[in-house]
Design a protein that fits this description.
- The complex is a heterodimer.
- By secondary structure, chain A is an alpha/beta fold.
- In chain A, strand 1, helix 2 and strand 2 form a beta-alpha-beta unit.
- Chain A is elongated, with a radius of gyration of 22 Å.
- In chain B, a hairpin with a 3-residue loop joins strand 6 and strand 7.
- In chain B, helix 1 packs antiparallel against helix 4, helix 2 packs antiparallel against helix 3 and helix 3 packs antiparallel against helix 4.
- Chain B is of the alpha/beta class.
- Helix content of chain B is 63%, strand content 12%.
- Chain B is rod-shaped, with a radius of gyration of 61 Å.
- Classes of the chains: A alpha/beta, B alpha/beta.
- At the A-B interface, helix 1, helix 2, helix 8 and helix 9 of A face helix 1, helix 2 and helix 4 of B.
Chain lengths: 357, 663
């Protein structure tokens, strides 16, 4: 008891001293980011690692892709995490070009809370009808039709959706709009949608939490949230007619397409036979010209270094958190993009660029 | 408010409509308030359930966070830490949204305070958790575990405890709200019962009011009808209001009025029938009586003529004569009210009659009576028998005088009025037209209505010495003139008799009043006397012979005609009794007229057989003489007719006379 208390005091003292000494340094070398909750677990892990190695503190808040981009445009943060490529319009027009650095590939899975946790298969049509409010009960024959015979409970379906502007919603709706004509007509795709039925929640954790709590509910979250919360998720039928379980492998397979053919880097409804159909890149958005709002060149260098770390070394950690690493060509183009970041017109990342070569 | 201003149908429909509207209003109100209470209860229930559910969610999530941290600390592995971090994030988000939801639903201050404490605790826990995760990520697991043991667990349990507190409070609150809602429910149902009773009461009152407003007048109508049925025509009917019952009562009132008029008319009819009966009786008597008087008078006069020297005999005869004349007057009066006397109509001015008669009237009145005459000279003419009208005025003036033993004012007025249908309906015998009114009013003792009803009955009198014929004579005369009488009397104030005589457009005739004195002798002319009464026939024959006429006699019409045929050329005048058994005088004369036209004739009659008939004196050869006649009258009339007789006299004039006399 006495020992532990003594230890604690020492510890507290150390912390205070460390804090005090770190304070000015931290102020100089702290990077702030915010946005998508979709890659948040990966980012948190990578930022901790980076901090450990480079003594640069990185703070990331999961506020959703839309809010992240807004915060970037108001110069509140240094970079924004987004699951939908930031276009010039979403950021302030007067602040110059925005770069979208892809960081990894994530899968959006359909999670549900059905008593007995049966493993369910879904066709895109059934998913669309559930989220349109057409299919109202779990024992609907259309759900039963694509599933092996088993007892589906006669309970109502509660749809849980994102109420904040979200890249996850964008990927999910992009997929539904591609596969369901009615969805594309009535709802369309976007980060923020008008949902015909259901209940809203904030962020991937919010949706995961609500689905965990509400029996009979169904929602869509990034794969890691489903696995991390030990939730059941469905297998989806892809364009080739196969029911695919979302795994790193199937997501990686989905991403192994010729991206030159896809204008917006969309991976949904992939033509790859083994590819999981609802997956997408997630990005970090930053201004190409970093000399704004009195930012130092050092800070710009830290940022580029951090992103370079994510794009290169960080990729090997992605799979452990069930994200698919970037395909090689994407990694290369990301690297090229990072080389274009400037501070006061001068390239920031000369060293790394050389190393990359 | 008088409901009878509205029709029954309107009343009923408004009443029923109001009741239905009330009922509907009540039902709607009931449904609304029940719904409200229901909603409130449901709302409460769902709110509480949701709040408790969220609180449980928070408890769960806090537990998950603790669990996740413990896992991460035990595993001491970067990947596990990250995965557990995902759980922590999820649980935190769940907690946050649950607290947001509770905050949205929470509306009591205590609940808010508890929630505030919970949020504080949770925020503290979040900060500590973040710190622990940070330490764990940095690989300082021991330190993290220490911190977790020191802080996070306590904060976690604090949050859980606050949660339980909130749940307990919510349950209590829900209970209290439920009780309050139940109270409201009870109060509302009580209100409804009261309102229902009020509506019921109002409806009952309205029903009673409506029923009364309908049955009341109906009962009155029944009452009125019963009274009318039992002959009580003086019933008063309340006809206020504008509804159907009012119309019914108005109709009944009109009926009563008509019945009253009818009974009045009936009464008058009975009255006149009574007079008629008496008149017939009197007429029947008069005929024979006049014959008898004629015999007495004729023989008396014969006696006088035959004994001119015997002073005593002449005197006694004169006494008999005057007695006979009085008796004749009495008969005349009887005949007057029975309207069977013979009248001589001439168009005259009423004011002239009154003025000429004035002196006579003044003589009859005592000094204490002030007589005023208001006679307009520009009045229309009336066709009357002046003597009869004088009789009427006399009778009325005598009555007025006797009504004012202590003196007063007697007013005689003449005027012209136009009588309309309305007036006629109240006066039996009156017809529309222009009338000259002669009114005699006094300021005397007056009469009560019962007396007024009987005054025209013969032999009815209020005077000790009256005959009871005065006013009935007036009545008879006026009716014979085609007029009527109106009496207005009030005990103590006086009486007014208004005599209505129909006006005429004929020219006024000059007053003729030839002096009837002295008998005129015959010049040997032959007179045929047709008279059924043997005594009278002989008396008349003796008288005429004595006067110097040659006499032929016949005892009835048949014989008269045969005698006339026999002595056709020699007869200068036929004296006929108008009323005879078998062939009457007129019939006999008609036959004689076919044998020898335009024979001068003189009819003798006791009374007029024509009811209300008129006889006009013919200027050229035919005359009428009243029984009993004195020798002077008889001789002069015969002389007049014989002297007037012209050889070329036409038949026409005679026929006119006959038609006028005959029925």
């Amino acid at each position: 008891m006495t020992l532990s208390r003594l230890l604690l005091r020492i510890l507290l003292l150390c912390t205070i001293v460390a804090g005090m000494s770190a304070l000015p340094a931290a102020a100089a070398s702290e990077l702030k980011g915010a946005g998508a909750t979709f890659p948040q677990p990966l980012y948190e892990m990578l930022f901790t690692m980076y901090q450990r190695r480079h003594a640069v503190k990185v703070v990331y808040e999961g506020v959703g892709s839309g809010e992240g981009l807004r915060l970037l445009s108001t110069r509140t943060i240094d970079f924004a995490g987004t699951d939908k490529m930031a276009s010039q319009e979403t950021t302030d027009a007067g602040s110059g070009a925005v770069l979208n650095i892809p960081t990894c590939v994530g899968a959006v899975v359909v999670v549900y809370n059905v008593p007995g946790n049966p493993k369910l298969r879904f066709t895109p049509e059934v998913v669309a009808d559930i989220f349109l409010g057409r299919i109202k009960r779990w024992n609907d024959p259309r759900i039963a039709a694509v599933n092996p015979p088993g007892d589906l409970p006669d309970i109502p379906i509660t749809v849980v959706y994102r109420i904040d502007a979200s890249g996850t919603t964008f990927i999910f709706s992009d997929y539904l709009a591609k596969t369901s004509g009615e969805w594309s007509d009535r709802i369309g795709k976007g980060t923020f949608l008008k949902w015909p039925t259901g209940q809203g929640a904030k962020g991937n954790p919010g949706v995961a939490g609500l689905v965990r709590q509400i029996p009979g509910s169904i929602g869509y979250v990034e794969l890691v949230y489903a696995i991390g919360n030990k939730m059941t998720f469905g297998t989806l039928r892809n364009r080739s007619g196969r029911f695919i379980v979302p795994t790193v492998k199937s997501v990686t397979a989905a991403a192994s397409i010729d991206l030159a053919s896809s204008a917006d880097y969309s991976l949904t409804d992939t033509p790859v036979p083994d590819g999981y159909p609802v997956s997408g890149f997630t990005w970090i958005a930053l201004y190409r010209e970093q000399n704004y709002s009195g930012r130092t060149r050092e800070k710009a260098q830290h940022l580029v270094k951090l992103l370079s770390f994510i794009v290169h070394e960080g990729q090997k950690y992605a799979t452990s958190l069930h994200y698919a690493p970037l395909p090689k060509n994407v990694r290369r183009s990301a690297h090229t993009l990072l080389g274009t970041v400037t501070h006061g017109g001068a390239p920031v990342h000369r060293h790394r660029a050389a190393a990359g070569r | 408010m008088n409901l009878r201003r509205f029709r029954i149908a309107a009343r009923l429909s408004i009443g029923l409509g109001l009741i239905v509207a009330f009922m509907i209003g009540l039902i709607v109100l009931g449904i609304i308030s029940m719904n409200r209470i229901n909603e409130r209860l449901e709302d409460l229930a769902s709110k509480t359930t949701v709040k408790i559910w969220y609180a449980t969610m928070i408890q769960d999530s806090v537990h998950v966070i603790d669990n996740a941290i413990l896992n991460a600390l035990v595993a001491r592995d970067e990947l596990t830490t990250t995965m557990e971090y995902v759980r922590i994030m999820t649980a935190r988000k769940t907690c946050e949204s649950a607290m947001e939801e509770i905050a949205k639903l929470e509306d009591t201050s205590y609940g808010k305070e508890v929630l505030g404490r919970m949020q504080q605790g949770f925020e503290q826990a979040s900060r500590e958790n973040s710190r622990i995760i940070e330490l764990a990520r940095a690989g300082r697991y021991r330190q993290a575990a220490g911190l977790f043991l020191e802080t996070s667990r306590t904060t976690g349990s604090f949050v859980r405890q606050v949660c339980s507190e909130l749940v307990g409070y919510e349950k209590e609150e829900a209970n209290a709200s439920y009780l309050a809602a139940t109270r409201t429910y009870r109060f509302t149902s009580l209100m409804f019962i009261i309102m229902g009773l009020a509506v019921l009461g109002t409806a009952c009152a309205a029903a009673v009011l409506l029923a009364r407003s309908i049955t009341g007048p109906l009962n009155e109508a029944v009452h009125v009808a019963n009274r009318l049925g039992s002959g009580d025509l003086s019933v008063e009917v309340d006809t206020s209001g504008r509804d159907e019952t009012a119309r019914l009562l108005t109709a009944m009132q009109e009926m009563a009025q008509r019945l009253r008029k009818l009974s009045e008319v009936e009464h008058q009819l009975v009255q006149s029938q009574k007079l008629e009966t008496v008149g017939r009786l009197a007429g029947g008597i008069a005929h024979d009586f006049n014959n008898m008087l004629g015999v007495i008078l004729g023989n008396t006069q014969l006696m006088k003529m035959q004994n001119p020297g015997a002073q005593k005999v002449v005197e006694r005869c004169t006494t008999i004569e005057s007695a006979v004349m009085r008796a004749s007057d009495f008969i005349k009066q009887l005949l007057a009210f029975s309207r069977r006397q013979i009248l001589e109509f001439r168009p005259v001015r009423m004011d002239e009659i009154v003025r000429e008669f004035e002196k006579m009237m003044r003589r009859m009145l005592q000094e204490n009576i002030d007589m005023r005459i208001v006679a307009h000279s520009d009045l229309a003419l009336v066709k009357v028998d002046t003597a009869q009208i004088n009789q009427v005025i006399l009778n009325l003036v005598v009555n007025a005088r006797e009504a004012m033993p202590d003196g007063g004012i007697l007013t005689i007025e003449t005027d012209v009025v136009v009588v309309d249908g309305d007036f006629c309906s109240f006066h039996a015998g009156a017809t529309t037209g222009t009338y000259v009114v002669l009114s005699v009013s006094d300021t005397g003792i007056g009469m009560n209505p019962e007396v007024v009803q009987s005054i025209f009955e013969p032999f009815f009198t209020t005077k000790e010495t009256g005959t009871g014929l005065g006013l009935s004579v007036v009545h008879g005369i006026i009716h014979q003139h085609g007029g009527f009488i109106d009496v207005a009397s009030e005990p103590g104030r006086g009486t007014r008799f208004s005599v209505y005589l129909p006006s005429t457009t004929d020219e006024a005739a000059e007053a003729i009043s030839p002096a009837e004195t002295g008998s005129v002798k015959g010049r040997g002319e032959t007179v045929l006397v047709v008279e059924d009464d043997k005594d009278l026939r002989e008396t008349v024959s003796d008288l005429l012979r004595l006067l110097g006429y040659r006499i032929l006699t016949a005892c009835d019409g048949e014989e008269g005609v045969s005698v006339f045929k026999e002595h056709c050329g020699e007869i200068d005048l036929v004296l006929l009794d108008a009323v005879m058994p078998g062939k009457s005088g007129f019939e006999a004369y008609k036959e004689m007229d076919t044998i020898r036209p335009a024979v001068p004739s003189l009819f003798v009659t006791g009374y007029n057989t024509v009811h209300g008939g008129r006889c006009e004196e013919d200027a050229n050869g035919t005359g009428v003489i009243r029984k009993p006649y004195s020798v002077e009258v008889l001789s002069r009339r015969i002389r007049e007719i014989l002297d007037r007789k012209q050889p070329g006299m036409t038949n026409e004039t005679n026929r006119t006379v006959l038609e006028a006399i005959q029925p």
